[in-house]
Design brief:
Elements (H helix, E strand, L loop, with lengths): L5 H8 L6 E5 L3 H13 L3 E5 L2 H10 L4 E5 L9 H9 L7 E5 L4 H9 L4 E4 L4 H14 L9 E4 L2 E4 L4 E4 L2 E2 L4 H11 L8 H8 L10 H15 L7 E5 L2 E5 L3
Parallel strand pairs: 1-2, 1-3, 3-4, 4-5
Antiparallel strand pairs: 6-7, 7-8, 8-9, 10-11
Helix pairs in contact: 2-6, 7-9
Length: 247
């Protein structure tokens, strides 16, 4: 008689129900295969084919697991996303790297950069399922870096109060960072002076907006942004302020 332990039974029946997986893959056939496996297990999948797209998805969504291709479209490979996780100083979702580079050195490099597991292409769908389940068992809830905003080439890291344009740090005073962060969160929508005052100058939010203080900080922010190549612009109109980023 075969005895099945409770642990084994739980492993075999574990699904990805309620789990959101980000698939970062530029090969359509491979992306479709991974997405089908995730959905067959009850999970939901988001897909992008670049590292920049992955940053944007991770900033905008609660991601529980990441399936990351080693070689991607665009100028960045998958390892750049692992480096980004270490830079933002926030615990990352578990990452499973997929790659046709099946050397030990490549595996070691990926794991040293922070990946949780590695699977070589072409892979058996059953092995992919087993590895996804294993990662899920080790995953902490809500490990995605929601303290990060990404809008085009602009990236704002709230925990360490750093803003970057095309990967380069923007020189900002703390108050200017707060203004930029607030405007960037609206992605081009207007914010009234009163609302901006309440968001940035929280200790004085019950006082009437101080136009001189606001104008001075907007001027400082504009000075920091105007030196950036094709950088963001702060527009002021009757409706208030908004941040503009040209496509």
């Amino acid at each position: 008689m075969t005895v099945i332990s409770k642990t084994t039974e739980r492993t075999e029946t574990m699904t990805l129900e309620g789990v959101k997986v980000l698939v970062v893959e530029d090969e359509t056939v491979d992306a479709d295969l991974v997405i089908r496996q995730i959905e067959a297990l009850g999970g939901g999948a988001l897909h992008t084919d670049t590292v920049q797209g992955a940053r944007e998805c991770l900033a905008d969504h609660s991601i529980d697991l990441v399936v990351l291709d080693r070689m991607l479209a665009g100028s960045e490979n998958g390892f750049e996303l692992l480096k980004w996780f270490s830079e933002i100083e926030v615990a990352a979702p578990p990452v499973l790297i997929t790659s046709r580079l099946a050397t030990s050195d490549d595996h070691i490099l990926g794991l040293e950069l922070g990946a949780d597991d590695y699977i070589d292409k072409p892979f058996d769908p059953r092995e992919l399922t087993a590895r996804l389940r294993a990662l899920l068992r080790r995953a902490d809830a809500m490990r995605s870096p929601m303290s990060v905003q990404v809008w085009g080439a602009l990236e704002i890291r709230s925990l360490n109060e750093v803003a970057l344009w095309n990967g380069e740090k923007i020189a900002l005073r703390p108050q200017s960072f707060a203004v930029l962060k607030t405007l960037a969160s609206l992605k081009g929508e207007y914010l009234s002076r009163r609302a901006l005052w309440g968001e940035v100058w929280k200790k004085n939010k019950f006082l009437p907006p101080q136009d001189t203080v606001i104008n001075t900080e907007i001027s400082r922010l504009r000075s920091s942004l105007k030196v950036l190549p094709n950088g963001p612009r702060v527009v002021a109109e009757d409706l208030g302020f908004r941040l503009v980023i040209e496509d």
